[in-house]
Amino acid sequence: MPILGAQGSTKGPAGAPTIGTATAGNASASVTFSAPSFSKLPITSYTVTSSPGSFTGTGASSPITVSGLTNDTSYTFTVRATNANGTSAASSASNSVSPGLSWSAWTLTELDAGSGKNVSNVMYGGGGTFYAQMYNVPGSPAGNYGQATGYTSTNGTSWTARTLPSAQQYRNPLYTSSIWVIPTDGTYYITSPDAATWTARTYTGRNAWNSCAGAGTFAVGGYGGNGCNTSTDGINWTDRTMADSSAWAAAVYGAGLHVHLTASSGTLYNTSPDGITWTSRSTFPVTGSWYNGGWNGSVLLVASVGTSTYATSTNGTSWTQRTLPIPSAPEAQVYSPTGGQFTIGTNGSTTVYSSPDGVTWTARNLPSNTLGGMRASMGGPNKMITPTNYNSVASITFS
After folding, report:
1. What is the pLDDT of residues 137-160, one digit of tens each?
2. In degrees to the nearest 10, what's the CA dihedral of 286, 294, 118, 331?
3. Which residue from 106, 154, 234, 297 has the least number of CB within 10 angstroms?
């Protein structure tokens, strides 16, 4: 009678596979292995398991990808084989790898050759569309930043010029509820369902340095005063009153709140869940000019211009003081939905820093002529795009 589990028996699971090599990807790893030296019954599947986390991937053959990993965390992997009689013992552990985004393969695209114009900011909206706003370089002509051209792209490398209703000094493009809105520093603003065809509109004028959109609501404040315009469709607007008057200079939507930041040195900011009811808050941990903000889906991050101080929060009301890896003058922090990355840099430097949680930062290199410190950059589902200090954009695809 055959002995259960012996190599000559048809009973019992297979032997353990032989581990190969683990290769890191974005929030994932690919693991190679060899089949067991014996299995009297056909192997129906293999299962690769991570340590830590016990994340698994299954497949019929090598290699197998394990997804759901945390970037910048070290993992090893084991593999087991399954046949009709059960699952084998685990292989030995693989080499250690740390998943992460690849920041090396940037593509530069010139949008308006020889024009002397700059790209001021980039926004990602619905339908997989990126919108890039142009502006005139100061002095061409002097004091005239207005520009009547924008560009759209679905891949970050092929761009189409779009004609706007008139030349204006447009502020940050906004998107929610299937409509684009771009405010200016006055009563004039434009809307579009697709970022291609734009309509000129008017509302109560604001010096619209601070504006954000989220959960179906646009909230456009002013640099100075306590006025705010809100809309759920980008067309019909209501005047609102914020809790405080201040030099409102930036805004971010996150943790279910519109968070409006002031350039006046202090700890003051205002929040609103709907753009209608505003609450005065002074819970920033230190005095600062809180000018930049970002949201990565679970953490809010705001930075004080001219210092290395920043703060993070998961609810928009309780904040933890932190120190950036750069000495001063953070230019912007942005969020790419891929990997939940915050990114921050300074003017004049091609080195930026990225963080998946707003706590741990890693130095990254940008293309040589991307000297804007990633200002006003934006990420789509698997892409980040940043303006350069010229009339070009740099894009990178994360796989």
Report:
1. 654 444 456 778 899 998 888 999
2. 30
3. 297
Assign domain 18-87 one CATH number from 2.60.40.10, 1.10.287.40, 3.50.50.60, 3.60.40.10.
2.60.40.10
Model confidence, pTM: 0.78
What is the overall mean pLDDT for the chain? 84
Same topology between domain 18-87 and domain 107-397: no
Which tokens in the block code for residue 50? 């991570």
pLDDT reading at 330 higher than 60: no
**Structurally, what CATH architecture does the domain formed by 107-397 represent?**
7 Propeller (2.130)
Question: Which residue, chain included where needed, has tokens 């060899």?
Answer: 34
